[in-house]
Amino acid sequence: MSPRTKIVLGGGAAALFLWWLLPNFVATLVILGLIAVPVAAYLMLDPSQRRRVRHQGRKRLGP
After folding, report:
1. Would you call 19 exposed, middle or buried from its count of C-beta atoms within 10 A (0-12, 13-18, 19+)?
2. Helix-strand-coil split of the chain, %, nearest 5
3. What pTM value is reported for the model?
4. Under a CB-based contact definition with an 8 Å cutoff, are residues 20 and 31 in contact?
5. What is the mean pLDDT of residues 36-43?
6. How confident is the model at residue 44 (pLDDT cuts 50, 70, 90)?
């Protein structure tokens, strides 16, 4: 299993746990915040910066 898949599964498990633990409205806001903040930050980058971010992700995977 790739590291990215582990992160996604861990995030999904944490989201389900928070949804079960907290009232639905608060859990929904927390989950939206966890998803919206990184997406908004990525979309605020200009194309050359996005290219550098994508390249760094591939570079860490190894040969």
Report:
1. middle
2. 85, 0, 15
3. 0.49
4. no
5. 88
6. very high
